[in-house]
Amino acid sequence: GLMAWGEHIGWDFNTETTIEKRQRHNHEFFRPWVFWGKCFELVPQNCVAFASGLWYHQIHDHETGEFSRHAQYDQHGTGIQNQYPRHGGFFMATWVEAYEKTKDTLYLEAIEVIYDFYHRNRNRTSGAIPGEVDNPRSNNLLLWPQSNLGLAIDLWDAAPRLPQELGGKLKEMALEIDEVYQRIKHDVSPDGPGFVSQGNAETLAAEDVRDGNNRVYSDRWTTGYGKSTDANTANICMLRFQQTGNEGFRQLIRATADRYLDTEPVTDFPVYPGSLGDVIHLLMNTHEITKEGIYLDRAQHFAQMALDMFFDDSSPLPRASSRHWHYEAITRTDNLMMELLRLYLVANKIEIQSGLVYLER
Q1: How much of the chain is in helix, strand and coil states, percent to nearest 5?
Q2: What is the distance in angstroms between the CA of the first residue and the CA of the last residue of the chain?
Q3: Which end of the chain lies in a sparser environment, N or C, as judged by fewer CB atoms within 10 Å?
């Protein structure tokens, strides 16, 4: 029932077969899937099969909730030790949709088991949910604050769609994640190091507890595998702010936007379309919150920069980076295209019926 998507597998429409990265048939979510409503409308049986497959073939232990973000696609093959919170949120978002459509209590059980896993494994000192459990390389101390915030978004969305007791527990956990997140010493002042992107789950300090060579703060412009920019992190804060109206998130969003009022990307290194898209999205978010024109003007500045940097008359597709001439989806060109569309709609005061959803979490 699983699908050929994620980092390690894809689908070849020419041959109608899978494409494997390094011969690994691993299934995982890459980003949230926001089209479940439309998918259940078009192919309900496939969606139910996927939701069930996610429980039976992704979750390793149906009592404890132990799982890995990776599972075998072509045969049963679950894993352990990589129970990243954002992935747990993606699972719950799938199951709440399936429960609404089928009323099958299997999906309530699945949601509760994963909720219990995270609740049980919170750090006893700080209350933070570790990024991985029982993994020797991190000793239950790895904290990815952004991943936890992603889980909170899905918990909050799911809560009102579930029976009251279960929904209440999910909502309470989301609020606890917010409280921990705002105790972390993020510094998005003009000269601050940025958001804490990796830390110690017990002390909440910025620290690489797993490998010792990874960045522990976000960066204004440079990104990479598993790394985020200031703008991307602030946009995830915006998703929580839209859900709760939490003033702490509002302050983080505006302070981050101010960091982009007098900075330009360093072009000595490749600049990715998604990075500029994140900044445009952040500046429009801040304009939406404050109604101050300086943020919309700055968004238009970066939009023109993106047009000059990634487009020419030879192709309608944006380039993979400021220093590469091919097209490549992994540099998040889709994100940039959506932000250019959103900016056009806002600047021209055009209303659309369907909202544009920020997926970069």
Answers
A1: 50, 10, 40
A2: 24
A3: N
